[in-house]
Amino acid sequence: MPTYIALTYTADVDWTRPEYAEEMKEYNEFGAAAAAVLRGGNALYPTSTATTVRVSGGKGGEVLTSDGPYAETKEALTGFYLLECADLDEAVKVAATIPAAWAGAVEVRPVIQF
Amino acid sequence: MLAGDATRVGDGPSAAAVARLVREERTRILATLIRVTGSVDLAEDATQDAVVRALETWPRDGVPENPRAWLLVVARRRAVDLIRREARRAGKEAEAVSLLDPAPENPESVRDDLLRLIFTCCHPALSLDAQVALALRTLAGLSTAEVARGLLVPEATMAKRLTRAKQKIAQARIPYRVPAAEELTARLSGVAATVYLIFNEGYAAGAGDDLLRTALTGEAIRLARLLAELMPDEATVLGLLALLLLQDSRRAARTDADGRLLLLAEQDRSRWDPALVTEGVELVGRALRRTAHRPDRYVVQAAVAACHALAPAYDLTPWDAVVSWYDVLLTVHDTPVVRLNRAAAVAERDGPAAGLALVDAVDGLTGYPWWHATRGELLRRLDRPTEAVAAYDRALALDLSGPQAEHLRRRRAELTD
């Protein structure tokens, strides 16, 4: 069965803060409702905690780190889920029940299975 | 099957008759083969192979008794060959054996396969550009080069667009399926939008344009007829076909002898195609009878077109009815362009001052040439020539086709002479 990753893009918030408890509850409810197809997933700390890593001059070269996410976007990548679904229609149906779908957007991508 | 056909030449059927027959069957074979093989690319290659063999052998040997079955057997064999070759290259066991047994296809499964193909090509996860390209390439059977020329896109760009679309279908697993009843309405309106876009591409083309481009109206009508054949009880489909036929009925009257564009008011109505008008109006009636609650935008647009089609002269247009249909349209499809069209109808019913007030109240169309052109026309009727000229100038500064710009220049010239 194909696996899809659902990347949640929302306001760049710190989910651990108490003011997001209500939203976290909604995500937990989604997790319980979608348990049959969920194969993993997590919320991410805000992009202010992100470090972007590059190695210059090829493998083994100088490691360059910079503060912040790889791509600055209005809505930030704030979490992900792995969904095992029969096809894209089914994955879209599940993704549409993730709270991020109405708070921001959810990007659904097929995962390559080697 | 074609025995005694008037197009027979000598001992075999004419190449043209064979080409027509093969083209009609091609999409059905392809639709079935995609389901069986699970791959659009593979099915297209195999179907193409069968089509080429039919075009070579049928004119010489005669058309087989069951052309569809013949094509399907040949295409299946070719698909098996292709899968085996691919499996050998990948060092995998052939998985193609089940394809070898050509279970007889009943009419029901052929219909379902066609629907699957239509809904897959017009899947909302594909961009509208990709949907249009797939509809023309895969459903209508045009070559990539023909699709590219029809849509004024470089062939390499079109080839890439088609490849990406087919890759997305395969890799993201867009299902090969007819939508469930509860999603059918939404999905059908997506299919209708794609077909209507194809029609409008062809309709917007002028006399000097590539014939392949103007032929897009015919391709769109073919697709709409196929939809109506497959889903004869869906109001959206009947409304779409009605709308296309009624618009197409004016084809011969849309331009004068010099190829200049003529507006509805200027057209010689005796040149409208009466057969298309009759069929279109009848379809509007059927569609309205199948409209339960929420009216469909294509049905309502077709109803407006029917009001025009049935009026013996422009002055005899039932403007009250036209305005009422636009009111209905606004309840399901409220866009600035619909508001503009309604305002133009009000101008005909209540006079240019009432129309202009409504046109000026439509927001968001300053980049739309026909908003300025409509203002120009109404200002002209209100005897405000300076403002009318300025309005035409603003329209002409925007993006218009050659014949459309020529039409507006003529109107403007009448004011300054």
TrEMBL record, chain A:
Gene3D superfamilies xrefs: Dimeric alpha+beta barrel
Domain of life: Bacteria
Name listed for the protein in its UniProt record: Transcription initiation protein
Record lineage: Bacteria, Bacillati, Actinomycetota, Actinomycetes, Micromonosporales
A UniProt-annotated Pfam family: YCII
PANTHER family associated with the record: BLL7171 PROTEIN (PTHR35174:SF3), BLL7171 PROTEIN-RELATED (PTHR35174)
Sequence similarity: Belongs to the YciI family.
YCII-related domain span: 16-114
